[in-house]
Write a structure and sequence with these properties.
This is MFS domain-containing protein. The structure is a single chain. With about 525 residues, the chain is an all-alpha fold. The protein has three domains: about 70 residues, no CATH class; about 240 residues, MFS general substrate transporter like domains (Growth Hormone, Chain: A), CATH 1.20.1250.20; about 210 residues, MFS general substrate transporter like domains (Growth Hormone, Chain: A). About 70% of the residues lie in helices and about 0% in strands. The chain is built from 24 helices and two strands. The protein has a two-stranded antiparallel ribbon with strand order 1-2. Strand 1 and strand 2 form a beta hairpin. Helix 5 crosses helix 7. The chain starts with a strand and ends with a helix.
């Protein structure tokens, strides 16, 4: 119930089942002046605090339903609602598709071993690449991931997530298939293909924010983010397949298989994904109400007004970005170069390298799920202290377990794999630290903040790729020792900055600003008069 002041009295607007069909409100005992005040409140509520759900989205919903195509009509006729849990199917499907977008970008990191191997690759001719060319191809995907986030945010605003992400995933699939042919013509042809793969991979963070903000009920956002972020671990599950394909059918088959596997996922995504539960034909009315209750729904005009200056002035937001930048150094050195380290430095064969590479990612996913549940049930720590604790565990733990790698011998591959596993498991806990802080601090601007996060991750990717390729030309333990020390220092320093400036409170830029009376009368009175005339 909402109280609207009128002189010395208050008029109450109550949510009622016998409501006005347009505004979903019951208004009683009003005269023309009071009606003006009520419409003032209704208009401001609709434009600035729609999360209160004072105004229904009937017109908007009807407009969206006009976009129904034959697929929507067919799904609607099926009358199948996934037993009231369509949101979980959307969550699972989005996670798998995002994992494939990342896997297509990551496949070169493993396959480069097969492409340049002159002893185990006998079914296809090996590719001669200098360390500089390998470094350039490695880093080129980072260009795509830098260009993607902001562009994807605006593209989703104008065209919708379904159209944008499915298009990027299609381009990624085609580029991955072509990676099996063009390197034999010229190694440099891989650069534009890697940029395309990077564009799709760079959209994942934005999609993560989009899906969680549109499909997750308010009390399930944390669980949605945990599973969506697991695409970072699921992407490496194709390593064993890549290893077998490389040995049995040659390196080109690795690219072809990844690209072809993406195509049916694109079809599934196009059929079942929708930008909002409000327009999904498989979402029941009960589930739709449950998902959208308390969710802020912002018009395109309001969504375009992002407070850039205030966001970039926020210390808490910069703490998040710095934490992700530091984390990306640790993640990239393991995710990108662990197969190379195992194969070139410790002399592990290609097949065992592929099998060993999935262990760290699998353990990271398991650790995130277990500690995520523990975090939700921990009551003796405040929210901010839990964020600091898990972010510290992520960064310091990741650094501590990287350091022993600087002192192992070439015959200690099992110890190396254990250290990689423990380090990567710790690094994944950033979802309970900086990522959770991002959702709490940025609220409805989380997608933009996460887009900038992706840019920082891309900077880390390019920096690590260039630095490692330049200083590990001979792939000796001594060369890698320097890398592991530097990465460990960066992780610890990034965590210190985060713990000093982080927050768990909504930042000032997340609050709607109510215009003053003069501005209100000047801009909104004509609109209110129109609404009053329509009501009459």
């Amino acid at each position: 119930m909402l109280a609207v002041p009128s002189g010395n009295n208050s008029i109450y607007i109550s949510d009622s089942t016998n409501s006005d069909t347009e505004n979903n409100l019951t208004i009683t005992s009003i005269d023309s002046e009071v009606a003006r005040e009520i419409h003032n409140v209704v208009y401001l509520s609709q434009k600035l605090v729609e999360s209160q759900h004072l105004v229904s989205q009937t017109k908007h919903t009807k407009r969206l339903y006009k976009k129904y195509n034959f697929v929507d009509k067919a799904l609607h006729k099926l009358n199948f609602h996934f037993f009231g849990h369509t949101r979980y199917f959307i969550l699972l499907m989005a996670t798998i598709c995002m994992s494939m977008a990342r896997s297509n970008e990551l496949v070169f990191n493993f396959n480069v071993i097969c492409m340049t191997n002159h002893t185990e690759t006998h079914l296809a001719s090996s590719i001669k690449m200098s360390s500089g060319e390998i470094s350039t191809v490695f880093a080129s995907s980072g260009i795509g991931t830098i260009l993607a986030p902001i562009a994807v945010v605006y593209a989703i605003h104008y065209f919708g997530a379904l159209a944008v992400f499915s298009s990027l995933l299609t381009f990624s699939s085609i580029a991955t298939i072509l990676m099996g042919y063009l390197p034999q013509v010229n190694v440099l042809w891989m650069i534009p293909l890697r940029i395309i793969q990077g564009l799709a991979a760079g959209s994942v963070m934005v999609m993560m924010g989009f899906v969680s903000s549109n499909w997750a009920p308010s009390n399930e956002v944390g669980n949605f983010l945990t599973l969506l972020s697991s695409s970072g671990q699921l992407q490496v599950l194709t390593y064993p397949m890549s290893a077998n394909l490389c040995v049995l059918h040659g390196w080109a088959s690795v690219f072809h298989t990844h690209g072809l596997l993406t195509l049916p996922l694109i079809g599934l995504f196009l059929i079942f994904f929708r930008d909002s539960p409000r327009i999904h034909p498989c979402v029941s009315s009960v589930e739709k109400e449950y998902i959208t209750e308390g969710l802020s729904k912002i018009s395109k005009k309001d969504r375009s007004h992002i407070p850039y200056k205030d966001i970039f002035r926020s210390k808490a937001i910069w703490a998040i970005w710095i934490a992700f930048l530091a984390n990306s150094f640790g993640f990239q050195v393991i995710g990108q170069f662990m197969p190379t380290f195992l194969n070139k430095v410790l002399n592990v064969n290609i097949h065992n390298t592929g099998l060993g590479a999935i262990l760290p990612a699998s353990m990271q996913l398991l650790t995130k799920l277990i500690l995520g549940a523990v975090s939700n049930r921990t009551t003796f720590l405040s929210s901010i202290n839990k964020i600091k604790f898990f972010n510290s565990l992520s960064s310091i733990g990741g650094a501590v377990f990287l350091l022993p790698l600087a002192f192992i011998n070439s015959d200690q591959s099992s110890i190396a794999l254990l250290m990689f596993t423990l380090s990567l498991s710790c690094l994944g806990l950033i979802c309970l630290g900086a990522m959770k802080s991002a959702t709490l601090c940025a609220r409805r601007f989380t997608d933009f903040v996460m887009a900038i996060v992706q840019i920082f991750i891309s900077i880390g990717m390019i920096t690590v790729s260039t630095f490692v390729s330049k200083y590990t030309t001979n792939n000796t333990i001594e060369e890698w020792k320097v890398i592991f020390f530097i990465i460990s220092i960066i992780l610890i320093c990034g965590n210190i900055v985060f713990c000093i400036f982080c927050s768990d409170k909504p930042q000032p830029f997340t609050f709607a600003k109510i215009p003053n009376d003069a501005l209100f009368k000047q801009e909104f009175t004509p609109i209110i008069k129109t609404q009053l005339n329509d009501a009459v």
